[in-house]
Every structure is written in structure tokens, then in C-alpha cells.
Amino acid sequence: MLPFEDEKLDPRVKRTHQMIEQSFDELVAEKGFQTLSVQDITERAGINRATFYAHFADKFALLDHSIRHGFHKELEKRMLNVCQFSLSNLRALVMVVCEFVDKSYSHCGMADPQFQALVEAQVRIQIHGLINHWLEDLPASAEVVATRARAATATSWALYGLAVEWSRAKRMPPLEEYADQVLPLLAANLGLSLEVAAPAHA
């Protein structure tokens, strides 16, 4: 299982965290990230500024947390964080990333470079971690293990880029069709060391 934040928090701390996150998500959807202020968030959540800053350094730290947590929940929802590698799971990952990027960008627009950079960093980190997690279960020599680490890096960049392409393009195939089209490209990125992987429809 992929590691994530420690959930063993005081229930009151959890509740406050959840109120802040929910208020933030609502406000981002309503007015976008750029014009959003900490004051807006605290008023919506019904807390004071001191309480907010006890949880997050600023709205960028909250955005970073929101992206990281939101994408992790999408992986958990499809149990990709606890499954083994197969081409069908790689295909499912393509769809998760495309959907998450499209939803995230539609909330804040394509013109916010800070937002885009945070989404890219958090999503790629988790893609890389997930692929490394999958590859750990496959037998390999030391040389192949090193190659896999580089392959996971290349695949995380490639997959995120493909998701952005699908989200931005005005004329793109339906997501399931797009996932089928790009799957061979991503499988090739992962290299011959994955010949032992299960077939796509296993």
C-alpha cells in the first residue's frame, strides 16, 4: 500500500481540517483560486484566522494539500494503491489522471501557472510512487531495478503530459478510447522488464 499522511489525528483536528478543505473546494469552484483569500476561507468555514494558520501556512499550502489528498482519494477509490501491476491497471491509471487533471483545470482555468505547477508536481509524484510500488513486486536483477526507476520517472512525465493534452484539446476521443490509444506508449516507456506483466484484459 502506498504511504500517505498519518490519519491518526485528534477528531477535533480532523473536523477542522475537513471544514477548511470543504470551504476551500467550494470557493475555488465558485470564484477560482487567484482571487480567493484566507479571509474568504475562514468566513466560509466559520473559524478565525489563527485556527486556519494553525493548520496551513497559507492558501498555497492548502491548495497543495487539497491536490495531494484529492488525487490520493481517486487512487484509493479504484484501489490502484493496493493492487499489482497489470496493463488493465495502467489503463485505469490513465483514466484517473485524465479525469483528475480535467476536473482540476476546469475549476481554476488554464491561465493560472501556479495552480498548474502544483497540480503537476503532486500528481506526478504520486504516479511515480504508484508505478514504483507496482514494479517492486516484479522479479528483476539490480540493473533492471535501476532501469525501472528511470522508467517510472519517464512514465510519470509522459502520463501527466498526455492527460493535459486530453484535457486541453477541443477535439479528442472519448476517455476510454484515448486510454486505449496511449496505453502502448506508456507500456513502451516501462520497457522490456515488464514482459511478465498480466495482459490488459486480465
Question: What topology does this entry show?
Answer:
Layout: H1 11-31, H2 38-45, H3 49-55, H4 59-77, H5 87-108, H6 113-135, H7 142-168, H8 175-190
Rg for CA atoms: 19 Å
Shape: globular
Give a short account of the largest sheet: none
- Count of discrete structural domains: 2
Q: How many beta-strand elements?
A: 0
Number of helices: 8
What does this structure look like?
With 202 residues, the chain is mostly helical. The protein has helices at residues 11-31, 38-45, 49-55, 59-77, 87-108, 113-135, 142-168, 175-190. The protein has 2 domains: 11-57, Arc Repressor Mutant, subunit A (Orthogonal Bundle); 61-194. It has 8 helices and no strands. The longest helix has 27 residues, at 142-168. Mean pLDDT is 83; it is low at 192-202.
Descriptive terms for the model:
Arc Repressor Mutant, subunit A; 202 residues; mainly alpha; 2 domains; globular
Summarize the structure.
This protein has 202 residues and is an all-alpha fold.
